[in-house]
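ingest -> validate -> predict -> emit
validate: passed (alphabet ok, no gaps, 113 aa)
predict: started
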Amino acid sequence: MRDDIKINDRAAAIQDKLVEKLERIYDPDVELDVYNLGLIYEINLDETGHCKVVMTFTDTACDCAESLPIAIMDSLKKIEEIESASVEVTWSPAWKITRISRFGRIALGISPR
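emit:
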């Protein structure tokens, strides 16, 4: 799991499954997945199996502001340990290009530093 994503112990226990699902959900404007793009800020899984994701977007006018949270919830609910999912969108802190992972930078043709 990325160091810049706040994650609780229950979610950390299934982090490989979470990353696998998040890497399959692409921001259509940037053509990079939400995980490597750095849109995910926080993941919490509670004792009832509810997974809450806190995320942002690259821009307040993002065309995918409605579709991406739904795609994330639908994908995460396919993980055995997750019964339900919700997404909270936040604008603070604002997304910055520095949140893109090294892999994401290479994929987008940006200097990986």
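Residues 6-107 form a domain with the GMP Synthetase; Chain A, domain 3 fold (CATH 3.30.300.130).
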